[in-house]
């Protein structure tokens, strides 16, 4: 079953076609990754799915229902959580407070809501939230830094806090925009393990944009390749890395040997 379906999506900025007739399936319980050279349209596609960009054409269906017209917070509330290419945390706030903000998408808001929603039900909800936050903090091994301001943390830990906040949104689909960009090898390995565990232990479908081919080929079940706003290949890692169109798309900014290594991490290890 596909938890997310994108059909014939097109998005232009003036004369620039960021996405052209893009169709993509995200099967439930998979790690699906979108790859492609710089400027291929990956972030634009993410922005259309999370509702920040409005495509001129096409349809996005989530759990069998169209997302048309829904604003980003509404989509997040339905279970589409997201992290960003550049860390988007409140740097002056503590780790715990940043994580608590993630749960906010599910809070009842507004005066009327607050008036009718109090007492036992609210206390019960708070207890559930605290339990979820505790579980996330334990899982991501960030208990020791939970009272620290985010700004003081090394980059790899900040990325982990961003992941924690997205998990606090209780997502069905977790969208990760370049989760290991700028990380050292150890941080990347930790993040790859967390992503695999989120799929396995938490039953959350992962949709990821990532440039690190080693990690992409290692952990993805399904890969879609974008180039100049179009999907040029789709399939499992083995199929995609042999596809001549994919090799050609990456040739623009690589020599053939480093390209082969990029697309085939096992060969690099050998
Ligand atoms: N807000 C915007 N206004 C104008 N043009 C945009 C905007 N967002 C994206 N574009 C253009 O759309 C195209 C696709 O950009 P996008 O950022 O989606 O690519 P990408 O694959 O995510 O690239 P990268 O790997 O470098 O992050 C590019 O030509 C980009 O300049």
UniProtKB/TrEMBL annotation:
Transmembrane segments: none annotated. Pfam families: ABC_tran (PF00005), BCA_ABC_TP_C (PF12399). One of its GO terms (cellular component) is plasma membrane. Coiled coil: none annotated. Keywords: ATP-binding, Nucleotide-binding, Transport. Gene3D superfamilies: P-loop containing nucleotide triphosphate hydrolases. The keyword Cell division does not apply. InterPro entries: AAA+_ATPase (IPR003593), ABC_AA/LPS_Transport (IPR051120), ABC_transporter-like_ATP-bd (IPR003439), BCA_ABC_TP_C (IPR032823), P-loop_NTPase (IPR027417). This is Amino acid/amide ABC transporter ATP-binding protein 1, HAAT family. It comes from Marinobacter daqiaonensis.
């Amino acid at each position: 079953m596909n938890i997310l379906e994108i059909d014939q999506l097109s998005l232009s900025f003036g004369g620039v076609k960021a996405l052209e007739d893009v169709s993509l399936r995200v099967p439930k319980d998979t790690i699906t990754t979108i790859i492609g050279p710089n400027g291929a349209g990956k972030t634009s596609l993410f922005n259309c799915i999370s509702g920040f960009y409005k495509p001129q054409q096409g349809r996005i269906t989530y759990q069998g229902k169209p997302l048309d017209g829904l604003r980003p917070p509404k989509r997040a509330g339905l279970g589409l959580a997201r992290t960003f290419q550049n860390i988007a945390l409140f740097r002056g706030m503590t780790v715990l407070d940043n994580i608590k903000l993630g749960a906010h998408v599910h809070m009842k808001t507004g005066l009327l809501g607050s008036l009718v929603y109090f007492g036992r039900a609210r206390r019960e909800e708070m207890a559930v939230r605290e339990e979820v936050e505790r579980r996330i903090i334990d899982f991501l091994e960030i208990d020791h830094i939970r009272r620290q301001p985010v700004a003081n943390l090394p980059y790899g830990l900040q990325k982990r806090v961003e992941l924690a906040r997205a998990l606090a949104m209780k997502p069905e689909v977790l969208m990760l925009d370049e989760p290991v960009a700028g990380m050292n090898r150890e941080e990347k390995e930790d993040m790859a393990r967390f992503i695999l565990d989120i799929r396995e232990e938490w039953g959350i479908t992962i949709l990821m944009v990532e440039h690190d081919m080693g990690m992409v080929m290692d952990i993805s079940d399904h890969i879609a390749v974008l180039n100049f706003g179009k999907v040029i290949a789709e399939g499992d890692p083995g199929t995609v890395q042999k596809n001549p169109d994919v090799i050609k798309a990456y040739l623009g900014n690589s020599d053939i040997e480093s390209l082969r290594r990029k697309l085939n991490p096992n060969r690099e290890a050998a």
